[in-house]
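Please describe what follows:
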Amino acid sequence: MGKFSKEMFSASDAYGAEQSLLFFTYLLGLTPFRLKGPLGGRHFQLSRLGYLNALMQMSFFSYCFLSALIEQQSIVNYFFKSEISQVGDSLQKFIGMTGMCILFTCSAIRVRLLIKLCDLVYHIDDRLLEIGVCFNYKRIMQLRHVKLVLICSVQVAYLASSLCMLLWNNVRPIYTATVAFYVPQIFLLSCVLLFEAFLHRCWQHLNVLNEVLKNLAHQWDSRSLKATQKQRSLQCLDSFSMYTIVTKDPAEIIQESMEIHHLICEAAATANKYFTYQLLTIISIAFLIIVFDAYYVLETLLGKSKRESKFKTVEFVTFFSCQMILYLIAIISIVEGSNRAIKKSEKTGGIVHALLNKTKSVEVKEKLQQFSMQLMHLKINFTAAGLFNIDRTLYFTISGALTTYLIILLQFTSNSPSNNSHLYSCCEALNNITANHTL
Protein backbone atom coordinates (compact mmCIF):
# COMPACT_ATOMS: atom_id res chain seq x y z
CA MET A 1 0.00 0.00 0.00
CA GLY A 2 2.87 2.36 0.81
CA LYS A 3 4.54 1.62 -2.52
CA PHE A 4 1.28 2.23 -4.36
CA SER A 5 0.66 5.57 -2.64
CA LYS A 6 4.27 6.59 -3.30
CA GLU A 7 3.88 5.89 -7.02
CA MET A 8 0.70 7.97 -7.08
CA PHE A 9 2.56 11.06 -5.90
CA SER A 10 5.93 10.62 -7.62
CA ALA A 11 6.70 10.01 -11.27
CA SER A 12 9.94 9.23 -13.06
CA ASP A 13 8.70 8.49 -16.58
CA ALA A 14 5.79 9.14 -18.95
CA TYR A 15 3.85 6.16 -17.62
CA GLY A 16 4.11 7.32 -14.03
CA ALA A 17 3.05 10.87 -14.88
CA GLU A 18 -0.36 9.63 -16.07
CA GLN A 19 -0.77 6.81 -13.55
CA SER A 20 -3.07 8.67 -11.14
CA LEU A 21 -5.35 9.86 -13.96
CA LEU A 22 -5.49 6.39 -15.51
CA PHE A 23 -6.25 4.86 -12.11
CA PHE A 24 -9.12 7.31 -11.60
CA THR A 25 -10.61 6.48 -15.01
CA TYR A 26 -9.99 2.78 -14.27
CA LEU A 27 -12.24 3.05 -11.21
CA LEU A 28 -14.90 4.64 -13.43
CA GLY A 29 -14.59 1.79 -15.94
CA LEU A 30 -13.25 3.92 -18.79
CA THR A 31 -9.72 2.45 -18.96
CA PRO A 32 -9.81 -1.31 -18.25
CA PHE A 33 -6.04 -1.81 -18.00
CA ARG A 34 -3.36 -1.42 -15.34
CA LEU A 35 0.32 -0.49 -15.31
CA LYS A 36 2.53 -3.49 -14.55
CA GLY A 37 6.23 -4.21 -14.20
CA PRO A 38 9.23 -2.53 -12.54
CA LEU A 39 10.66 0.85 -13.45
CA GLY A 40 12.32 0.69 -16.85
CA GLY A 41 10.25 -2.29 -17.96
CA ARG A 42 6.74 -1.02 -17.40
CA HIS A 43 3.86 -1.98 -19.67
CA PHE A 44 0.07 -1.86 -19.68
CA GLN A 45 -1.91 -5.04 -19.22
CA LEU A 46 -5.62 -5.53 -19.87
CA SER A 47 -7.61 -6.23 -16.72
CA ARG A 48 -10.58 -8.59 -16.48
CA LEU A 49 -11.63 -6.78 -13.33
CA GLY A 50 -11.60 -3.54 -15.30
CA TYR A 51 -13.91 -4.99 -17.96
CA LEU A 52 -16.20 -6.40 -15.26
CA ASN A 53 -16.29 -2.99 -13.56
CA ALA A 54 -17.19 -1.29 -16.85
CA LEU A 55 -19.96 -3.83 -17.54
CA MET A 56 -21.45 -3.42 -14.06
CA GLN A 57 -21.39 0.35 -14.23
CA MET A 58 -22.97 0.43 -17.69
CA SER A 59 -25.70 -1.98 -16.55
CA PHE A 60 -26.42 0.07 -13.43
CA PHE A 61 -26.62 3.36 -15.34
CA SER A 62 -28.85 1.81 -18.01
CA TYR A 63 -31.20 0.60 -15.29
CA CYS A 64 -31.31 4.06 -13.67
CA PHE A 65 -31.92 5.81 -17.00
CA LEU A 66 -34.68 3.42 -18.07
CA SER A 67 -36.32 3.38 -14.62
CA ALA A 68 -36.40 7.18 -14.44
CA LEU A 69 -37.74 7.36 -18.01
CA ILE A 70 -40.52 4.82 -17.34
CA GLU A 71 -41.54 6.43 -14.04
CA GLN A 72 -41.34 9.89 -15.68
CA GLN A 73 -39.24 11.17 -12.81
CA SER A 74 -36.43 13.67 -13.34
CA ILE A 75 -34.67 16.54 -11.62
CA VAL A 76 -35.99 18.99 -14.21
CA ASN A 77 -39.60 17.99 -13.52
CA TYR A 78 -39.08 18.78 -9.85
CA PHE A 79 -38.46 22.40 -10.83
CA PHE A 80 -41.30 22.80 -13.33
CA LYS A 81 -43.35 20.91 -15.90
CA SER A 82 -44.19 21.97 -19.41
CA GLU A 83 -44.51 20.35 -22.80
CA ILE A 84 -41.06 21.48 -23.88
CA SER A 85 -39.43 20.53 -20.58
CA GLN A 86 -40.90 17.02 -20.77
CA VAL A 87 -39.73 16.57 -24.37
CA GLY A 88 -36.29 18.00 -23.57
CA ASP A 89 -35.92 15.92 -20.43
CA SER A 90 -36.92 12.67 -22.19
CA LEU A 91 -34.54 13.46 -25.05
CA GLN A 92 -31.77 14.27 -22.58
CA LYS A 93 -32.28 10.95 -20.78
CA PHE A 94 -32.29 8.94 -24.01
CA ILE A 95 -29.19 10.64 -25.42
CA GLY A 96 -27.50 10.49 -22.01
CA MET A 97 -28.04 6.73 -21.79
CA THR A 98 -26.89 6.28 -25.40
CA GLY A 99 -23.86 8.47 -24.75
CA MET A 100 -22.83 6.50 -21.67
CA CYS A 101 -23.13 3.25 -23.62
CA ILE A 102 -20.95 4.72 -26.39
CA LEU A 103 -18.32 5.83 -23.86
CA PHE A 104 -18.10 2.40 -22.26
CA THR A 105 -18.27 0.52 -25.56
CA CYS A 106 -15.53 2.57 -27.23
CA SER A 107 -13.38 2.33 -24.12
CA ALA A 108 -13.68 -1.47 -24.13
CA ILE A 109 -13.35 -2.11 -27.87
CA ARG A 110 -10.65 0.48 -28.67
CA VAL A 111 -8.62 0.10 -25.49
CA ARG A 112 -5.56 -1.12 -27.43
CA LEU A 113 -5.45 2.20 -29.26
CA LEU A 114 -5.19 3.99 -25.92
CA ILE A 115 -2.39 1.66 -24.82
CA LYS A 116 -0.63 2.31 -28.13
CA LEU A 117 -1.01 6.05 -27.52
CA CYS A 118 0.60 5.77 -24.07
CA ASP A 119 3.46 3.74 -25.54
CA LEU A 120 3.98 6.35 -28.27
CA VAL A 121 4.17 9.14 -25.69
CA TYR A 122 6.77 7.14 -23.75
CA HIS A 123 8.75 6.45 -26.94
CA ILE A 124 8.67 10.13 -27.96
CA ASP A 125 10.03 11.14 -24.55
CA ASP A 126 12.90 8.68 -25.01
CA ARG A 127 13.70 10.04 -28.46
CA LEU A 128 13.62 13.63 -27.18
CA LEU A 129 16.04 12.64 -24.43
CA GLU A 130 18.53 11.67 -27.15
CA ILE A 131 18.59 15.26 -28.43
CA GLY A 132 18.72 16.80 -24.97
CA VAL A 133 15.18 17.15 -23.60
CA CYS A 134 14.21 15.88 -20.16
CA PHE A 135 10.65 16.37 -18.87
CA ASN A 136 9.66 17.15 -15.31
CA TYR A 137 7.27 14.23 -14.80
CA LYS A 138 6.54 15.14 -11.19
CA ARG A 139 5.20 18.51 -12.28
CA ILE A 140 3.09 16.88 -14.99
CA MET A 141 1.61 14.51 -12.40
CA GLN A 142 0.89 17.44 -10.06
CA LEU A 143 -0.98 19.17 -12.89
CA ARG A 144 -3.11 16.03 -13.37
CA HIS A 145 -3.84 15.93 -9.62
CA VAL A 146 -4.91 19.58 -9.59
CA LYS A 147 -7.35 19.03 -12.46
CA LEU A 148 -8.74 15.84 -10.90
CA VAL A 149 -9.33 17.60 -7.59
CA LEU A 150 -10.88 20.57 -9.36
CA ILE A 151 -13.30 18.43 -11.37
CA CYS A 152 -14.32 16.36 -8.35
CA SER A 153 -14.72 19.47 -6.17
CA VAL A 154 -16.88 21.28 -8.70
CA GLN A 155 -19.03 18.21 -9.26
CA VAL A 156 -19.48 17.49 -5.55
CA ALA A 157 -20.26 21.15 -4.85
CA TYR A 158 -22.88 21.24 -7.61
CA LEU A 159 -24.43 17.96 -6.43
CA ALA A 160 -24.51 18.95 -2.76
CA SER A 161 -25.84 22.47 -3.33
CA SER A 162 -28.57 21.38 -5.74
CA LEU A 163 -29.71 18.51 -3.50
CA CYS A 164 -29.80 20.86 -0.52
CA MET A 165 -31.91 23.25 -2.61
CA LEU A 166 -34.34 20.43 -3.43
CA LEU A 167 -34.59 19.23 0.18
CA TRP A 168 -35.00 22.81 1.43
CA ASN A 169 -38.09 23.09 -0.76
CA ASN A 170 -39.48 19.75 0.47
CA VAL A 171 -38.58 17.86 -2.71
CA ARG A 172 -37.05 14.40 -2.26
CA PRO A 173 -35.74 13.06 -5.58
CA ILE A 174 -35.65 9.32 -6.19
CA TYR A 175 -32.18 7.83 -6.54
CA THR A 176 -32.65 6.66 -10.15
CA ALA A 177 -33.47 10.18 -11.30
CA THR A 178 -30.53 11.54 -9.30
CA VAL A 179 -28.10 9.04 -10.86
CA ALA A 180 -29.46 9.66 -14.37
CA PHE A 181 -29.02 13.41 -13.98
CA TYR A 182 -25.78 13.88 -12.02
CA VAL A 183 -23.53 10.86 -12.56
CA PRO A 184 -23.00 11.19 -16.37
CA GLN A 185 -21.42 14.60 -15.78
CA ILE A 186 -18.43 13.16 -13.92
CA PHE A 187 -17.92 10.51 -16.64
CA LEU A 188 -18.07 13.04 -19.46
CA LEU A 189 -15.73 15.43 -17.68
CA SER A 190 -13.31 12.58 -16.88
CA CYS A 191 -13.20 11.58 -20.54
CA VAL A 192 -12.56 15.23 -21.43
CA LEU A 193 -9.73 15.35 -18.88
CA LEU A 194 -8.18 12.19 -20.35
CA PHE A 195 -8.27 13.66 -23.86
CA GLU A 196 -6.91 16.97 -22.60
CA ALA A 197 -4.01 15.16 -20.87
CA PHE A 198 -2.83 13.67 -24.17
CA LEU A 199 -3.31 17.02 -25.91
CA HIS A 200 -1.11 18.57 -23.24
CA ARG A 201 1.65 16.03 -23.90
CA CYS A 202 1.29 16.56 -27.66
CA TRP A 203 1.64 20.31 -27.14
CA GLN A 204 4.70 19.74 -24.94
CA HIS A 205 6.37 17.52 -27.55
CA LEU A 206 5.80 20.05 -30.32
CA ASN A 207 6.95 22.88 -28.09
CA VAL A 208 10.25 21.25 -27.15
CA LEU A 209 10.84 20.19 -30.75
CA ASN A 210 10.43 23.81 -31.83
CA GLU A 211 12.78 24.90 -29.04
CA VAL A 212 15.43 22.45 -30.21
CA LEU A 213 15.24 23.82 -33.75
CA LYS A 214 15.27 27.41 -32.47
CA ASN A 215 18.29 26.64 -30.32
CA LEU A 216 20.04 25.23 -33.38
CA ALA A 217 19.28 28.42 -35.31
CA HIS A 218 20.54 30.50 -32.37
CA GLN A 219 23.81 28.59 -32.37
CA TRP A 220 24.21 29.25 -36.08
CA ASP A 221 23.54 32.94 -35.55
CA SER A 222 26.13 33.18 -32.78
CA ARG A 223 28.55 31.02 -34.77
CA SER A 224 29.05 28.73 -31.81
CA LEU A 225 28.52 25.51 -33.73
CA LYS A 226 31.87 23.73 -33.74
CA ALA A 227 32.35 20.05 -34.35
CA THR A 228 35.03 19.71 -31.68
CA GLN A 229 33.41 21.76 -28.97
CA LYS A 230 32.12 19.73 -26.03
CA GLN A 231 29.64 21.76 -24.04
CA ARG A 232 25.95 21.92 -23.32
CA SER A 233 23.73 24.96 -23.15
CA LEU A 234 21.13 24.50 -20.43
CA GLN A 235 17.75 26.18 -20.76
CA CYS A 236 15.06 25.82 -18.09
CA LEU A 237 11.53 25.91 -19.45
CA ASP A 238 8.03 25.39 -18.04
CA SER A 239 7.83 21.67 -17.30
CA PHE A 240 11.00 20.36 -18.91
CA SER A 241 14.69 21.14 -19.15
CA MET A 242 16.53 21.22 -22.44
CA TYR A 243 20.14 21.03 -23.39
CA THR A 244 21.13 20.80 -27.04
CA ILE A 245 24.14 18.57 -27.48
CA VAL A 246 26.45 20.76 -29.53
CA THR A 247 28.80 17.96 -30.49
CA LYS A 248 26.07 16.39 -32.63
CA ASP A 249 26.09 17.06 -36.31
CA PRO A 250 23.27 19.46 -37.39
CA ALA A 251 22.11 17.03 -40.07
CA GLU A 252 21.81 14.33 -37.41
CA ILE A 253 19.79 16.61 -35.11
CA ILE A 254 17.43 17.51 -37.97
CA GLN A 255 17.04 13.85 -38.93
CA GLU A 256 16.13 12.94 -35.36
CA SER A 257 13.74 15.90 -35.22
CA MET A 258 12.04 14.62 -38.38
CA GLU A 259 11.59 11.18 -36.85
CA ILE A 260 10.25 12.66 -33.61
CA HIS A 261 7.82 14.87 -35.53
CA HIS A 262 6.57 11.79 -37.39
CA LEU A 263 6.00 10.02 -34.05
CA ILE A 264 4.14 13.06 -32.67
CA CYS A 265 1.83 13.10 -35.70
CA GLU A 266 1.27 9.37 -35.32
CA ALA A 267 0.38 9.86 -31.63
CA ALA A 268 -2.03 12.68 -32.53
CA ALA A 269 -3.67 10.51 -35.21
CA THR A 270 -3.99 7.64 -32.70
CA ALA A 271 -5.56 9.98 -30.12
CA ASN A 272 -8.02 11.28 -32.70
CA LYS A 273 -8.91 7.73 -33.75
CA TYR A 274 -9.50 6.62 -30.17
CA PHE A 275 -11.41 9.68 -28.91
CA THR A 276 -13.33 10.53 -32.09
CA TYR A 277 -16.69 8.96 -31.13
CA GLN A 278 -16.35 9.96 -27.49
CA LEU A 279 -15.81 13.57 -28.53
CA LEU A 280 -18.81 13.46 -30.84
CA THR A 281 -20.92 12.07 -28.01
CA ILE A 282 -19.71 14.60 -25.43
CA ILE A 283 -20.15 17.60 -27.72
CA SER A 284 -23.63 16.42 -28.82
CA ILE A 285 -24.83 15.87 -25.25
CA ALA A 286 -23.30 19.17 -24.10
CA PHE A 287 -24.94 21.06 -26.95
CA LEU A 288 -28.37 19.52 -26.26
CA ILE A 289 -28.21 20.33 -22.55
CA ILE A 290 -26.95 23.87 -23.18
CA VAL A 291 -29.85 24.51 -25.59
CA PHE A 292 -32.57 23.43 -23.16
CA ASP A 293 -30.92 24.99 -20.09
CA ALA A 294 -30.53 28.30 -21.92
CA TYR A 295 -34.18 28.06 -22.97
CA TYR A 296 -35.35 27.42 -19.39
CA VAL A 297 -33.33 30.37 -18.09
CA LEU A 298 -34.38 32.78 -20.85
CA GLU A 299 -38.01 31.73 -20.61
CA THR A 300 -37.98 32.52 -16.90
CA LEU A 301 -36.06 35.79 -17.13
CA LEU A 302 -38.12 37.09 -20.06
CA GLY A 303 -41.40 36.00 -18.48
CA LYS A 304 -42.52 34.24 -21.66
CA SER A 305 -44.71 31.82 -19.71
CA LYS A 306 -45.97 31.28 -16.21
CA ARG A 307 -44.35 28.36 -14.44
CA GLU A 308 -45.79 26.73 -11.36
CA SER A 309 -42.86 25.89 -9.11
CA LYS A 310 -41.88 25.81 -5.46
CA PHE A 311 -38.53 27.35 -6.29
CA LYS A 312 -37.69 31.01 -6.42
CA THR A 313 -36.54 32.55 -9.68
CA VAL A 314 -32.99 32.96 -8.35
CA GLU A 315 -32.79 29.28 -7.38
CA PHE A 316 -34.26 28.20 -10.69
CA VAL A 317 -31.88 30.30 -12.79
CA THR A 318 -28.82 29.39 -10.67
CA PHE A 319 -29.45 25.65 -10.93
CA PHE A 320 -29.77 25.52 -14.72
CA SER A 321 -27.05 28.13 -15.29
CA CYS A 322 -24.54 26.07 -13.27
CA GLN A 323 -25.33 22.94 -15.27
CA MET A 324 -24.96 24.89 -18.49
CA ILE A 325 -21.58 26.26 -17.35
CA LEU A 326 -20.30 22.74 -16.59
CA TYR A 327 -20.93 21.59 -20.15
CA LEU A 328 -19.59 24.84 -21.57
CA ILE A 329 -16.36 24.15 -19.70
CA ALA A 330 -16.23 20.67 -21.27
CA ILE A 331 -16.58 22.08 -24.80
CA ILE A 332 -14.06 24.88 -24.17
CA SER A 333 -11.52 22.41 -22.73
CA ILE A 334 -11.78 20.18 -25.80
CA VAL A 335 -11.60 23.01 -28.31
CA GLU A 336 -8.82 25.00 -26.63
CA GLY A 337 -6.66 21.92 -26.06
CA SER A 338 -6.99 20.88 -29.70
CA ASN A 339 -6.42 24.41 -30.99
CA ARG A 340 -3.33 24.80 -28.83
CA ALA A 341 -1.71 21.66 -30.26
CA ILE A 342 -2.66 22.57 -33.84
CA LYS A 343 -1.25 26.10 -33.56
CA LYS A 344 1.98 24.81 -32.04
CA SER A 345 2.40 22.33 -34.90
CA GLU A 346 1.95 25.12 -37.45
CA LYS A 347 4.91 27.02 -35.99
CA THR A 348 7.30 24.19 -36.81
CA GLY A 349 7.10 24.95 -40.53
CA GLY A 350 8.19 28.55 -40.06
CA ILE A 351 11.18 27.51 -37.94
CA VAL A 352 12.27 24.89 -40.50
CA HIS A 353 12.12 27.44 -43.33
CA ALA A 354 14.07 29.94 -41.25
CA LEU A 355 16.77 27.29 -40.80
CA LEU A 356 16.64 26.56 -44.51
CA ASN A 357 17.43 30.18 -45.30
CA LYS A 358 20.37 30.28 -42.87
CA THR A 359 22.17 27.02 -43.63
CA LYS A 360 25.06 26.83 -46.05
CA SER A 361 25.65 23.10 -45.83
CA VAL A 362 24.28 21.08 -48.75
CA GLU A 363 23.60 18.06 -46.53
CA VAL A 364 21.75 20.10 -43.92
CA LYS A 365 19.76 21.92 -46.62
CA GLU A 366 18.68 18.57 -48.10
CA LYS A 367 17.53 17.35 -44.67
CA LEU A 368 15.58 20.56 -44.09
CA GLN A 369 13.88 20.24 -47.49
CA GLN A 370 12.84 16.70 -46.54
CA PHE A 371 11.54 18.04 -43.23
CA SER A 372 9.57 20.73 -45.09
CA MET A 373 7.97 18.12 -47.34
CA GLN A 374 7.07 16.04 -44.30
CA LEU A 375 5.40 19.05 -42.66
CA MET A 376 3.29 19.55 -45.79
CA HIS A 377 1.99 15.97 -45.75
CA LEU A 378 1.79 15.31 -42.00
CA LYS A 379 -0.52 17.75 -40.22
CA ILE A 380 -2.19 17.46 -36.85
CA ASN A 381 -5.96 17.62 -37.00
CA PHE A 382 -8.75 16.55 -34.63
CA THR A 383 -12.29 15.74 -35.74
CA ALA A 384 -15.47 14.34 -34.20
CA ALA A 385 -16.02 11.17 -36.27
CA GLY A 386 -15.06 13.19 -39.36
CA LEU A 387 -18.26 15.27 -39.12
CA PHE A 388 -16.60 18.52 -38.08
CA ASN A 389 -13.18 19.80 -37.08
CA ILE A 390 -12.44 20.43 -33.43
CA ASP A 391 -10.94 23.91 -33.43
CA ARG A 392 -12.13 27.43 -32.67
CA THR A 393 -14.46 27.46 -35.68
CA LEU A 394 -16.64 25.13 -33.60
CA TYR A 395 -17.54 28.09 -31.37
CA PHE A 396 -19.23 29.88 -34.28
CA THR A 397 -21.02 26.71 -35.36
CA ILE A 398 -22.39 26.07 -31.87
CA SER A 399 -23.31 29.73 -31.35
CA GLY A 400 -25.26 29.87 -34.62
CA ALA A 401 -27.10 26.62 -33.98
CA LEU A 402 -27.81 27.60 -30.35
CA THR A 403 -29.29 30.94 -31.40
CA THR A 404 -31.48 29.29 -34.04
CA TYR A 405 -32.89 26.65 -31.70
CA LEU A 406 -33.50 29.15 -28.90
CA ILE A 407 -35.48 31.41 -31.24
CA ILE A 408 -37.58 28.43 -32.38
CA LEU A 409 -38.27 27.30 -28.81
CA LEU A 410 -39.16 30.80 -27.63
CA GLN A 411 -41.50 31.27 -30.60
CA PHE A 412 -43.09 27.92 -29.82
CA THR A 413 -43.71 29.14 -26.28
CA SER A 414 -45.23 32.39 -27.56
CA ASN A 415 -47.57 30.46 -29.87
CA SER A 416 -48.53 27.86 -27.26
CA PRO A 417 -52.23 27.01 -26.73
CA SER A 418 -52.28 28.76 -23.36
CA ASN A 419 -51.28 32.07 -24.97
CA ASN A 420 -53.77 31.56 -27.80
CA SER A 421 -56.59 30.89 -25.35
CA HIS A 422 -55.61 33.99 -23.41
CA LEU A 423 -55.71 36.02 -26.64
CA TYR A 424 -59.11 34.50 -27.50
CA SER A 425 -60.57 35.43 -24.10
CA CYS A 426 -59.34 39.02 -24.48
CA CYS A 427 -60.95 39.33 -27.94
CA GLU A 428 -64.21 37.86 -26.64
CA ALA A 429 -64.31 40.35 -23.77
CA LEU A 430 -63.67 43.21 -26.16
CA ASN A 431 -66.54 42.04 -28.41
CA ASN A 432 -68.92 41.86 -25.44
CA ILE A 433 -68.02 45.42 -24.36
CA THR A 434 -68.61 46.66 -27.93
CA ALA A 435 -71.98 44.87 -28.16
CA ASN A 436 -73.18 46.29 -24.82
CA HIS A 437 -72.12 49.78 -25.87
CA THR A 438 -74.11 49.44 -29.14
CA LEU A 439 -77.22 48.31 -27.31
Notes: Strands lie at 33-36, 43-46, 133-135, 232-236, 240-245. Residues 224-241, 243-247, 418-439 have pLDDT under 50 and may be disordered. The radius of gyration is 28 Å. The chain has 14 helices and five strands.
